[in-house]
Design a protein that fits this description.
alpha+beta; 5 helices; 158 residues; 8 strands; globular; Jelly Rolls; 40% helix
Amino acid sequence: MEHAGTPRHHKADLIRSVALFQGCNDAEVARICSMTTEHWARAGEVLTKQGEPGLDGFVIVEGQVTATRSGRRIAHLGPGTLFGELALLDGNKRTATVVAETDLILLVLSRRDFINLLDTAPSVARKVMAELGARLRRTDDLIDPLAERGGEVPPLSV
């Protein structure tokens, strides 16, 4: 795949569009952009594999991916989407397999750089925590119907 590189302003717009980084100011976005590297992938390439260790998060610049968990399709993702963010947070095993449906251009953020960002930019850490809190609340809302049907659900947040 031939590509001259993502223009700096386009990178910044992509980072701003990622829910985890929404609300970051220009300086914070510039810092995040400086920590990313471009990666090109061909259609069919496995980008993450469920159960394997993960140390990077990815923002899609161009192209489409499909995410599966235990062989079931859970998402179809396109430009501006971040995936692999749990690996950024905890460095643990991947929760999904992500495969390139088309040729891709990605921005890659390593866990090491992400942790450094959180350590040195508390304002970004607070914004990331707020987004994670919102996601946890949405997850709680999704499991409410199960609990209402009498299913036992361990608390995700209390």
